[in-house]
């Protein structure tokens, strides 16, 4: 609403959107060429495919004469199936490719991976996200004074505790929702911190829903998966996505890992319930999207993705340097392309409005992420490079002669 009002009020202004974390760079040709060939093959008898398995497709290859294992070349039946044989080799099922490329030696098998139409949908199916819990009535009453729901425990995290909650003061819950690298703070939990989280879940009989959507942006030795932690397979489900990994925000493709070792207190495997949910509430991810996802995880495709990731992280570095030059404290920007910028003593909506009105730059007020975000704004680096340059110039021009103290005084 604020954006639309601003555009209406300033029709000639060029708005730079550093708010919503939507990718802007093209999907690499190594991926789109495969998707294009797959789409063309759908117009043929040999290449057409309908419903796939709800858990994720297996790829039938006429060239190999069966469920393709990257075997022997037997002639041209359709360009797309020949392409899969030649390029994909032994890795022809997306679940197997994820297990091999993303989870490597972490003991995750392909039948523990469920392909989906995006992480957001999977989180909602798990009923662990705040909004879906509210919708189905699990969150109980809303407290107007605190802005919290009675049945949701809010694990406070901020600069004072290195953005990792104090588990010693956290009560037991059935579900623990945890995102690392974190949106909006940009903080990636350390191995020691995740070990504490896994131990906490074991002691309390809780299930961790671990959101690792930004894992491929990690540049230090922080764990990229909860399953790097010993014992995590007994207490955790991991949700991830191709949206930020491959620029699939409009294609829609993700996955969820539900280990066979994760059981209820009765000993019943959680994976059985999740499989039932997937088969009841879902008809399988797009065949075309899965073909693209498989191409992303080929050696050539994965290399191309890293180039785009580096591009966004360079954007984040440039923006961070800009805000730091004003004497502001900036968090994030190292393991995820988000900046969490601190304006001490100010309200986040005031900061948002000031920057929008004076520089025509759209950010996100930190208050939208909870009470601890009140003095912050989140700035996304998912933007074209020229927009990053322009945003840096506008911010510098506006704040160039303003010290942090005077800046705060200018804010309403």
Strand order of the largest sheet: 4-10-9-8-7
Query: What would you call the quaternary organization?
Result: single chain
**What is the count of β-strands?**
15
Report mean pLDDT, rounded to a whole number.
86
- How many strands, which pairing sense, and closed or not: the largest β-sheet? 5 strands, mixed
What fraction of residues sit in β-strands?
5-15%
Q: CATH topology of the largest domain, what is it called? A: Aspartate Aminotransferase, domain 2
Count of separate structural domains: 2
Instruction: Give helix % range.
Output: 25-40%
The second-level CATH architecture of the largest domain is: 3-Layer(aba) Sandwich
Element-by-element helix/strand order: HEHEEHHEHHEEEHEEHEHHHEEHEEEHH
Note the total helix count: 14
Structural class: alpha+beta
Could you tell me how far the N terminus lies from the C terminus, measured between alpha carbons in angstroms?
A: 20 Å
Judging from the principal axes of the Cα atoms, what is the shape? globular
CATH superfamily of the largest domain: Type I PLP-dependent aspartate aminotransferase-like (Major domain)
Which regions contain 5 or more consecutive residues with pLDDT less than 50?
60-91, 408-412
Radius of gyration: 23 Å
Which CATH class of the largest domain is shown? Alpha Beta
Cofactor: pyridoxal 5'-phosphate
Domain Aminotransferase class I/classII large: 169-383
InterPro entries: Aminotransferase_I/II_large (IPR004839), DapL/ALD1 (IPR019942), PyrdxlP-dep_Trfase (IPR015424), PyrdxlP-dep_Trfase_major (IPR015421), PyrdxlP-dep_Trfase_small (IPR015422)
Keywords: Aminotransferase, Pyridoxal phosphate, Transferase
């Amino acid at each position: 609403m604020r954006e639309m009002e601003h555009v209406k009020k300033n029709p000639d202004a060029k708005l730079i959107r550093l708010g919503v974390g939507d990718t802007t760079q093209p999907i690499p040709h190594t991926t789109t060429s495969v998707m294009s060939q797959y789409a063309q093959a759908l117009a043929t008898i040999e290449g057409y495919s309908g419903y796939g398995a709800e858990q994720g497709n297996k790829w039938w290859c006429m060239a190999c004469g069966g469920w393709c294992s990257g075997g022997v070349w037997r002639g041209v039946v359709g360009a797309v199936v020949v392409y899969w044989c030649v390029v994909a080799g032994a890795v022809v099922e997306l679940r197997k490719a994820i297990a091999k490329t993303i989870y490597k030696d972490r003991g995750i098998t392909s039948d523990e991976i469920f392909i989906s139409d995006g992480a957001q949908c999977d989180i909602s199916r798990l009923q662990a996200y705040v909004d879906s819990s509210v919708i189905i009535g699990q969150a109980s009453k809303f407290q107007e004074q605190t802005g919290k729901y009675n049945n949701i425990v809010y694990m406070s995290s901020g600069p004072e505790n290195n953005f990792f909650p104090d588990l010693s003061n956290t009560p037991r819950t059935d579900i623990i929702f945890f995102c690392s690298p974190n949106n909006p703070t940009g903080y990636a939990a350390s191995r020691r911190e995740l070990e504490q989280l896994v131990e906490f879940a074991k002691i309390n009989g809780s299930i961790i829903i671990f959101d690792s959507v930004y894992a491929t942006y990690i540049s230090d030795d922080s764990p990229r998966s909860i399953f790097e932690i010993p014992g995590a397979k007994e207490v955790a489900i991991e949700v991830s996505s191709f949206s930020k990994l491959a620029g699939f925000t409009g294609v829609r493709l993700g996955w969820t890992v539900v280990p066979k070792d994760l059981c209820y207190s009765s000993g019943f495997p959680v994976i059985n319930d999740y499989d039932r949910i997937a088969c009841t509430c879902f008809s399988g991810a797009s065949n075309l999207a899965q073909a693209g996802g498989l191409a992303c995880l080929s050696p050539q495709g994965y290399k191309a993705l890293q180039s785009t990731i580096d591009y966004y992280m360079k954007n984040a570095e440039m923006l961070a340097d800009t805000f730091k030059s004003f004497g502001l404290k900036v968090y994030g920007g190292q393991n995820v392309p988000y900046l969490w910028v601190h304006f001490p003593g100010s309200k986040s909506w005031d900061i948002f409005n000031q920057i929008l009105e004076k520089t025509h730059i759209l950010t996100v007020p930190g208050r939208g992420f909870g009470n601890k975000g009140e003095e912050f704004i989140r700035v996304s680096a998912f933007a074209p490079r020229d927009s990053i340059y322009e945003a840096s110039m506008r911010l510098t021009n506006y704040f160039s002669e303003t010290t942090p103290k005077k800046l705060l005084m200018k804010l309403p």
